[in-house]
Amino acid sequence: MTGLRYVYAVCRPFGAALQSQLTGVAGAPPKLLHHRGLVAVVSSVPERDFAEEPLHAHLEDLDWLTATARAHQGVIDALTTVTTPLPLRLGTVFRDDSGVRMMLEAREGDFLRTLDRLTGRVEWGVKVYAEPAPGQSAEAGEPAATPPGPGVESGRTAGTPMSGRDYLRRRSRSVRERESGLRKAEEFAERLHERLAAHAEDARLHAPQSAQLSGASGRNVLNAAYLVPRAESEEFVEIVDRTKDEMPGIRVELTGPWAAYSFAGEKP
């Protein structure tokens, strides 16, 4: 194996084979590097792209970063089907196998403790969104009606702008409805989180996602991760599925099962 060593994850030794056609970052197949009671999942990457300076430059290139992240995640997903991986950060690179083994040696105790805690468990993600009413902006709660133009009087006919008074009334009503809907969504999300956390071994609440960044419609009021034993995942998914139609104007999204990214560090 030539080139630098890209490290995807650390896990315990496992007997199942990885997919024969699996490729990782830069198109190289992942390999297993054993060291004592641990295995590092690695592949070879070219120095021209992954040495310190070019790697920092590439991290500013969105297309390159997206392709690399997808390849990285593809290996993690494949590992999750056969073992419990402890994912490492995107772009974790060492000079050679010796450097990887030194890392495993230095962090052996932490890796083993974390793997003990995560073995046989997966992460499920749950998001709850308050969706805007028809004709209403997801962020500002603005009515869709045409605001008044200069010199518009209170009386109007179909197809003409509404008066300033009517516009303000509708805007005020729209804001009240949006605030009421948001409160209901937040209360629903709180109840759902309590229910799901009771069926999980651990839970993490992440910051709500911005609609501008995520591209998702609606206001994100719950962005949570749950650590669930793999054997109990079906029951967990059923609980989420039963909530999806409980309340109009609220959308529940479930993702997973993932490697336990949110639980790989020490408990906060």
What distinguishing features does this structure have?
alpha+beta; Alpha-Beta Plaits; five-stranded antiparallel β-sheet; globular; gas vesicle; GvpL/GvpF family gas vesicle protein; GvpL/GvpF
- Uncertain segments: 138-145, 151-156
What does the overall shape look like? globular
Fraction of helical residues: 25-40%
Q: Indicate the mean pLDDT.
A: 85
Work out the strand percent.
Answer: 15-25%
Our count of domains comes out at 2
Helix tally?
8
Number of strands: 9
Radius of gyration: 25 Å
SSE topology string? EEEHHHEEHHEHEHEHE
Pfam family, one: GvpL_GvpF
Keywords: Gas vesicle
Subcellular location: Gas vesicle
Family: Belongs to the gas vesicle GvpF/GvpL family.
Report on this model:
With 268 residues, the protein is an alpha+beta fold. It has two domains: 4-119, no CATH class; 122-139 and 178-263, Alpha-Beta Plaits. Helix content is 38%, strand content 22%. The protein has eight helices and nine strands. The chain has helices at 47-50, 52-58, 62-80, 97-106, 108-118, 164-198, 211-214, 233-243; strands spanning 4-11, 31-35, 38-45, 86-87, 93-94, 121-130, 202-205, 219-229, 250-258. Strands 1, 2, 3, 4 and 5 form a five-stranded antiparallel β-sheet that branches. The chain has a four-stranded antiparallel β-sheet with strand order 7-8-6-9, covered by helices on one side. A hairpin with a 2-residue loop joins β2 and β3. The model is unreliable at 138-145 and 151-156 (pLDDT under 50).
